[in-house]
Write the structure tokens for this entry.
Amino acid sequence: MISLPLSWLSETLNASPQNTPNSDFTGICTDTRQPVAGTVFLALQGENSDGHRFLKTAEERGAVGAVVAQYDPAVTIPQWVVNDTLLALGEIALAYRKRFRLPVIGVTGSVGKTSTKEMLGAMLSAFAPTLISAKNYNNEIGVPQTLLQLTPEHRAAVIEMGMRGMGQIEYLARIAQPTIGLITQIGVTHIELIGSQEGIALAKSELLTQLPPDGTAILPITSPYADLLEERTPQGTQIIWYGVTNDENANVRALPDSIRIDESGKPSFDVVINSSDYSVSLNAVGAHHVHNATAALAVAFALWLDYDEAIAALELWEGAEGRMTVRQSPLGYRVLDDCYNAAPESMTASLATLGRFAWRGGGVAILGDMRELGAFAEEAHIQVGRVVQDSPIRLLVTVGALAEGIAAEARRSEKPLPAFAHFPDSKACAAGILALLQEGDAVLVKGSRAMEMESIVSVLMGKGSEG
């Protein structure tokens, strides 16, 4: 964040502290464990914590002011009192975002949004300094924090936007003010909160409704909700269609018959961009990255980038951490770490990738619960069980009560079945998994974030349950 006078904060929040010194601040801090000196501390309030408890600590560590919901007379630094500090964070980020004129790419979708965001960051950074959402900074706290990192040196920004319910992406997009809105895929993640897949499409399309008249919507042409997404795009906003398809209506299309997967699971493919042909060889594991890369190249098309340079940058990207990261374990296993999150679509893609590694040794799938699927949960796990029936694996390990449905469906197959094992949670699996494995196994680990499957990866990598 660039240095700004404290008076700017008063104007932004329409609030004035008891004393406003004629000085500047260098950022907004929400955690006193991070660098505090020179910043304004913003006291967030959550179910399990209250930032107001750390006001004195912030002052002692050099904060030059605080945004609070309750005034603390024991603290001498200026305090801006607001009704809701979380909303204040959004207001500050919006006002700061308006100081910059640059392409801001908002990315959302049920699956693939983080990998696509990371691809875009790698691609755009090859052309100019680009701000990229860090880690899982895709919510009402993370998006403002990301925007507050903008500097005059940045020439573009890539902002990931997640959601847990209706209206949340609209709120994030109002703050980020994207000039380009990209939707990856419409799946069933969060269907428990939304109620239907069409509802999820509507929630994701909130990103489109916030685009400016001269903005650009980048949409998956193969989605069953393509018409809905088009209808939700503001009149006059440019639409760029992309997808893994032969449909010539797609401005950017990866040709399905051209996709090839090498021995290490890395895909290559031919892509048509604005009627010109190009070849792409990705350095990230998983055929699903063809869709993500096509989305990234649609952004290159929107920004009039040099396509050869854009493709070269994408080919250097090795994948996002915890999203089909392939590791060689010192214990003799090939570990496919895809444990960041899970949905039926991504489970299916991961099992397909595991099949590419099975020839190196026995294929082992360690699959945890897929959460936040509501009434669709049972059917979703059954669907994955059917995919397991056609997967070349020797051992299926399920983790969690819901994941038992995967094994139950797989057992109904008339085909030769893999061996089965079940653990109630990731801690139990981490304690017992090594006894089930053989040297040379290719081991996929995947489950919803709440399942904490990374503890299993840690054991497979010989680091122990604590990593």
About this structure: DSSP finds 17 helices and 22 strands in the chain. The first helix runs from residue 6 to 13. The two ends are 34 Å apart (CA to CA).
